[in-house]
Description:
By secondary structure, this protein is of the alpha/beta class. It is 39% helix and 8% strand. Strands 2-3-1-4-5 form a five-stranded parallel sheet. Strand 2, helix 7 and strand 3 form a beta-alpha-beta unit.
Amino acid sequence: MSKLESADTLEGDELLDDFVDGVEEAADFVISDVGSDAEESIKPSTKRKAVEAADIAEKPKKKVKTKKQGHGVDASALFAKEGLPLHDCSGWQLKGDDNISLFIRDFLFPSDAAKFFSKSSNLPPGAPKVLVLASSAIRAVEVCRLVRKTGDCKVAKLFAKHMKLKDQVEVLKKDTFPIAVGTPNRIQKLISDGGGALRLDELDFVIADGTHKDQKERTLFDVPEVRTDFFQLLHSIKESAPRVRFCIY
């Protein structure tokens, strides 16, 4: 399996797999009835009980699978290691999913939001102002719903579970999307194999959905394959559009 295929796999529904195995109960042990000779029959039964109890004590119990905890990766340190400067977002105090649209509109574009995030936007097709990167297709769907509150504009869904690559290319060529949300692997494919359908010349910000945790308590930076795709994409964007600013929400 290639690296890109591996990352695509991680973008699917299997990120929601989080079953807990039950502990197998010990089988009931039946002691045979005592015969006519009480003294002879009771002693072997008592001995069997002791042996069976010892077997149960020695038999290892099945371990219950628990949720894997996030590794607590220092995202800022990863950016520094990659030589990618982070945009200073310390002035934004409202955290949480419900405020990501306000973060884009009121913090990143305090004076130009109405100009860009509306039906009357003059942006060319397939040229977003903001690109939000999520860890999986499942999370990207949720982020699309959240950022729609930014304004009266379309949001491009750029992840593998939504549309085929060729279909996404056709849509990007025709429609205007001031905001695009997707997974690193699919967006990299659109840039490299999309024939210029996804344009970077209008892009101002790339936002990492880096504080959200999935059901296994993992962030965008905790899954090695996704993290690798993420930074490869950022380097590719920086090379093509050096003025773009990166930030973590």
